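User: Cytidylate kinase, Pseudosporangium ferrugineum:
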Amino acid sequence: MATPAPPVVTIFEAYGSGAEEIGPRVAEELGVPFHAQAFSSEQLEDPSTGDGLLARVFAAMGGSYAALEGPAVAMAQRDDHELVLRNTEWVLDAARGGGVIVGRNGALILSSWPGALHVRLDAPVTRRVERAARVAGISPERAARRQRREDLMRADMSLRLYGWDPREPTRYDLVLNTGTLDPVACAAVIVHAVRAKAR
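Assistant: Predicted structure for Cytidylate kinase:
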């Protein structure tokens, strides 16, 4: 009898929806690793805190809006291709061992992965900003600025590099409102759905 494949869950969250609380709970319950966003809110707010990969992503984002001509177009396309390959290989490798993967275009890359459950977390903006400020220990005003920037930026990354909009709800098996369900309840629903889908 074949050994069952380890569970795989992808999560895409609107800023402040609680993935940093819910994801680890799900991973612990399923006995698989938790993989946070590739880039934290702090890195997106201040790119100097990140590594060279974030700088390359920002360069690609800028290229999508700039009027590029001649060799610059080919260079931007090459960088985009390399970023997509690198991220896709990372996600596939993580999925082979099972895991809870936040962001990284996991729902698209693993859309046909057997048994993978794809989850979107969202909530009213005011609730998301309140939660993000509390969790990060920052002012609500700063969290509100992060929310406006980050929600747009994460969607733009996916649109630019992968040509899909991660905000589209039909891409997911579950869409959970973390404004009405607490992290424990959300984790329980996700774990139950993982096991149900595996059957």
